[in-house]
Specification:
The chain is mostly helical and 155 residues long. The protein has one domain: Ferritin (Up-down Bundle), CATH 1.20.1260.10. It has helices at residues 9-39, 45-72, 81-87, 99-126, 130-153. The protein is elongated. This is DNA starvation/stationary phase protection protein.
């Protein structure tokens, strides 16, 4: 059965490429946040440990939402570390920075994901894909809010 959702195949593929970048950013940010949850130390351990857990759980659910939107568009979603590594612009952290650097990196990561969400919205808007625009707008708002909260910790 052909996909007949009112969006041309070529447009669905363009949107799915942008969504794949958002999925890669989301998953990369999930991994980094989860690692920082495990490894945070310092005077703010309890609050950061708890906050990072809330954030990685939200990112885990978001990754599923983004991947399923790609599938709605009848395109296969990337799902390997190597694919995500090629698509994301979020820098991997292989060490264990101090808590301030963790907060800084996560704030930057959410800002990157917000910018990626904006690119998804632009691609979807051009094709009249309100479903993707709605989902990406929700992701944009979540990333902007989280980035603000993380930046506020450092002031």
């Amino acid at each position: 059965m052909d996909t007949q959702i009112g969006i041309a195949e070529q447009d669905r593929e363009v949107i799915a490429r942008q969504l794949s970048k958002l999925l890669a950013d989301t998953y990369s940010l999930y991994l980094k946040t989860h690692s920082f949850h495990w490894n945070v130390t310092g005077p703010h351990f309890n609050s950061l440990h708890t906050m990072f857990e809330t954030q990685y759980n939200e990112l885990w659910l978001a990754a599923d939402e983004v991947a399923e939107r790609i599938r709605v568009l009848d395109v296969f979603a990337p799902g390997s570390y190597s694919q995500f590594g090629k698509l994301t612009t979020i820098q991997e952290e292989s060490g264990v920075p101090d808590w301030k650097e963790m907060v800084t990196q996560l704030g930057t990561g959410h800002e990157i994901a917000a910018a990626t969400s904006r690119e998804v919205i632009k691609a979807a808007d051009g094709a009249g894909d309100e479903g993707t625009m709605d989902m990406a707008t929700g992701r944009l708002k979540a990333h902007e809010k989280t980035a603000w909260m993380l930046r506020s910790l450092l002031k």
